[in-house]
Amino acid sequence: MTVNEKIKLLRHSHNLTQEEMAKAIGMTTNNYAKIERGSEGNIKMYHLQKIAEKFDTDILELLSLGEKKFVYCTFAEHTINNDTNQGVLIGEISDDTKNTVIATSQLQQTVNHQKEIIEQLKEEIQTLKEMVELLKNSNSGAS
Q1: What residue ranges do the domains of the chain occupy?
Q2: E strands along 22-127, which residues?
Q3: What are the C-alpha distances in Å from 117 to residues 17, 108, 112, 124, 131?
Q4: What's the CA dihedral at 123, 126, 131, 135 to 10 degrees?
Q5: What b/e sequence results for 31-45 when a residue is b if at least 16 CB atoms lie within 10 Å of its CB, and e otherwise?
Q6: Nearest-angstrom CA–CA distance, 44 and 90
Q7: Nearest 5 degrees, angle CA 127-CA 130-CA 136?
Q8: Which residue has the higher pLDDT, 38 or 95?
Q9: Which residues pair with residue 142 across a beta bridge?
Q10: pLDDT of residue 143
Q11: Mean of the pLDDT values across residues 107-125?
């Protein structure tokens, strides 16, 4: 099921007209109808957000409605002709790949946690070195 079909299905299930949806998300009825027909091309994130809000859901739930696929969203930065742009990438992966993505995410969290522990230990070592130096100085001054 495509995104435009999902949006149309949700609109029908909420007993809304295209005119009501268009007004709710701040666009003309004609442009909203293009979204439902799939002739709008890429739907702007702003409009997807407004549609999701109208149905009291979030964009990822809207995109994954009725799917057996795992939808992911990530922030990305890309450079084209020395011009750096930032944006949100949204994609789908099959159930077969879902477990790999989850495991990779968990491993990344473990690595990040270990990095934090290493930084804490480095700070503790530095503090201990400073204490040893202070003790040396106080012992040499007492002699």
Answers
A1: 3-67, 95-143
A2: 70-80, 83-93
A3: 56, 14, 9, 10, 21
A4: 170
A5: ebbbbbeeebeeeee
A6: 12
A7: 145
A8: 38
A9: none
A10: 60
A11: 93
Quote the tokens at residue 64: 């994954």
Residue 136 corresponds to which amino acid?
K
Nearest-angstrom CA–CA distance, 101 and 106: 9
Q: Degrees (nearest 5) of the Cα angle 92, 97, 98?
A: 75
42, pLDDT greater than 80 = no
- Six-digit token string for 15: 């007993």
Give how far Cα 49 sits from Cα of 24, 26, 36, 114, Å: 12, 12, 15, 36
Three-state secondary-structure class, residue 68: coil
Domain 3-67 has CATH 1.10.150.130: no
- The mean of the pLDDT values for the chain is 79
Count CB atoms within 10 A of the CB of residue 18: 15
pLDDT confidence of residue 120: 96
Q: What whole-number distance in Å separates Cα of residue 10 and Cα of residue 2?
A: 12
Query: Which amino acid belongs to residue 43?
Result: I
